[in-house]
C-alpha cells in the first residue's frame, strides 16, 4: 500500500532504516517480536499467540488510526535485510495536535545497535519540522534503563517520576519516568532556524 493513501504518514529515511505505514504484509515480521514476553512487558498489550492476533492488531492499532487521519506508528524496515524489525511513531495524534508522545518497539534481535537514537531523531525532525508540534514527550519505565539513554542524547529534559498501570486486568502499578523536549529547544540544539507559525 502506498503512503499516498495516508497523506499524514510520510515515508521517512534514516541511515539504516525506512519508516513507512504498516500493512498486513508486515504481520509475520511483527509477530516475531510481539510474541515475546520481553517485548510486551512494557506495553499495554499481551503477547501475541498466533499471527492472526498480529493481523488484528495491525488493523486496529495501525490501519484504523491511519484511516481516521491520525499520525500513528510507522513500520521500521531495516535496509540491510529488508525486514520489518519494529514500529515507531507518535501515539495516535491528530494532524492538528500540538503535543505528541513517542513510542518505540524493536525486535530484540536488533537491540544493541543504537537504533533508538536514530529513529527518535527522525521523529523529532518529522514532528517539529513537518507536523509543527510544539512539544514531544517520552515515557520510559524504571526497569528499562536502556530506553532513557537515547532521550538524553537527543536533549530531552527529565521531568520526574510517576506511577502507571500497564494492564487493565492487572492492579499493579509501575514506576515511569517522563521526558520532554520543546520545539524551540530542538531548534537551538540542532542549530536550525526556528520558524514560528502562530
Please, could you describe this protein's structure?
The protein is an alpha+beta fold. The chain has one domain: Aminopeptidase (3-Layer(aba) Sandwich), CATH 3.40.630.30. Helices cover 29% and strands 31% of the residues. The chain has helices at residues 27-34, 37-40, 51-67, 115-130, 148-153, 183-189, and strands at residues 12-13, 17-21, 70-78, 83-94, 99-106, 135-141, 157-165, 173-182. The chain has an eight-stranded mixed sheet with strand order 1-2-3-4-5-6-8-7, sandwiched between helices. Strand 3 (70-78) and strand 4 form a beta hairpin. The longest helix has 17 residues, at 51-67. The radius of gyration is 16 Å and the shape is globular. The protein starts with 11 loop residues before the first strand and ends in a 9-residue tail after the last helix.
Short description:
The chain is about 30% helix and about 30% strand. It is α+β, with helices and mostly antiparallel strands and about 200 residues long.
Question: How would you classify the quaternary structure?
Answer: single chain
Rg, please? 16 Å
- Domain count, please report it: 1
Query: How are helices and strands ordered from N to C?
Result: EEHHHEEEHEHEEH
Regarding CATH, which class?
A: Alpha Beta
Could you state the CATH homologous superfamily?
A: Gcn5-related N-acetyltransferase (GNAT)
- Spatial order of strands in the largest sheet: 1-2-3-4-5-6-8-7
- Please give the alpha-carbon distance between the first and last residues: 35 Å
| Amount of helix | 25-40%
Amino acid at each position: 500500500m502506498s503512503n499516498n493513501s495516508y497523506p499524514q504518514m510520510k515515508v521517512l529515511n534514516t541511515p539504516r532504516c525506512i519508516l513507512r505505514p504498516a500493512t498486513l504484509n508486515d504481520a509475520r515480521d511483527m509477530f516475531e517480536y510481539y510474541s515475546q514476553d520481553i517485548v510486551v512487558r512494557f506495553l499495554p498489550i499481551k503477547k501475541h499467540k498466533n499471527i492472526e492476533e498480529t493481523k488484528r492488531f495491525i488493523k486496529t492499532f495501525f490501519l484504523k488510526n491511519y484511516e481516521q487521519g491520525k499520525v500513528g506508528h510507522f513500520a521500521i524496515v531495516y535496509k540491510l535485510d529488508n525486514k520489518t524489525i519494529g514500529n515507531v511513531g507518535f501515539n495516535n495524534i491528530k494532524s492538528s495536535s500540538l503535543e505528541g508522545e513517542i513510542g518505540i518497539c524493536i525486535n530484540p534481535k536488533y537491540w544493541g545497535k543504537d537504533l533508538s537514537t536514530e529513529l527518535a531523531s527522525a521523529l523529532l525532525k518529522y514532528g517539529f519540522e513537518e507536523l509543527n508540534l510544539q512539544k514531544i514527550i517520552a515515557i520510559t519505565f524504571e526497569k528499562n534503563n536502556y530506553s532513557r539513554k537515547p532521550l538524553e542524547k537527543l536533549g530531552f529534559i527529565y521531568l520526574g517520576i510517576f506511577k502507571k498501570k500497564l494492564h487493565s486486568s492487572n492492579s499493579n502499578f509501575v514506576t515511569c519516568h517522563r521526558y520532554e523536549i520543546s520545539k524551540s529547544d530542538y531548534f537551538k540544539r540542532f542549530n536550525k532556524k526556528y520558524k514560528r507559525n502562530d
